[in-house]
Amino acid sequence: MPPLRSSVTAVVGSDGIRVKNGQRLEYAMMVTTTTKDWFLAMQPMLQAVGIGISKVDVVDFPTWISRLNVGKYESTMNGWGNFAIDPRGDLADQFWSTTTAVRGDSTGYKNEQVDQLFAQAAKATSHDEEKRLYDQIQMLVEGDCVYAYLFRPKQLGASVNNLVLPNAQIQAEIYDGLPNWTIKG
């Protein structure tokens, strides 16, 4: 059964910010000195789709970490990279409630079906079975919209002259091609 939806739709106010039931779609944004530039680049795009920012709080990284508790901030911008480590562990760290309860979680996300799929994946006896379970996890988490992924920067690294890397468009592809790295000479 689909979720019940409100019959009241959001409208765009005279200032371009969406409003629903008298509530403006705006929130405070907490950023670090590093992610401030990312936010400044994203802000016009957020405004273009009717999302307002009521306040920007620029903090140093240790302060940002200390505030990453459920309910202690409205929104934040963060980078999430996993280019060389096992993505299964990265998914579990972000979305398996038994894992996030131990290390601390800034979202409060809990989905029983996702938790069950993680438990099944941990006991999988084949790569294909494990992949199928992790694909299901990713689809559920995407549907729950735990995070809003706004962009993925293209980053390329430099290497010494004797390291030969496969052709790549983005940094992740470099690490995906790790088995094909060679040393020249």
Describe this structure in words.
The chain has 185 residues and is an alpha+beta fold. It is built from seven helices and seven strands. Strands 1-2-3 form a three-stranded antiparallel sheet, with no helix packed on it. A two-stranded parallel sheet has the order 4-5. Helix 1 links the parallel strand 4 and strand 5. The mean pLDDT is 80.
List the helices and strands and how they pair.
Blueprint: E1 11-12, E2 18-20, E3 23-24, E4 26-32, H1 36-48, E5 52-59, H2 61-67, H3 87-95, H4 97-103, H5 112-122, H6 127-144, E6 163-164, H7 171-176, E7 182-183
Parallel strand pairs: 4-5
Antiparallel strand pairs: 1-2, 2-3, 6-7
Helix pairs in contact: 3-4, 5-6
What are the defining features of this structure?
185 residues; 14% strand; three-stranded antiparallel sheet; 38% helix; alpha+beta
Q: In sequence order, what are the helices and strands, one letter per element?
A: EEEEHEHHHHHEHE
SS content category: alpha+beta
Determine the oligomeric state from the structure: single chain
Extract low-pLDDT stretches.
Answer: none
From the N-terminal CA to the C-terminal CA, the straight-line distance is 63 Å
Number of strands: 7
Strand order of the largest sheet: 1-2-3
Biggest sheet statistics: 3 strands, antiparallel
Rounded radius of gyration (Å)? 20 Å
Q: Please work out how many helical segments DSSP would assign.
A: 7
**Fraction of helical residues:** 25-40%
β content, as a range? 5-15%
Q: Roughly what is the average pLDDT, rounded to an integer? A: 80
Instruction: Name the shape in a single word.
Output: globular
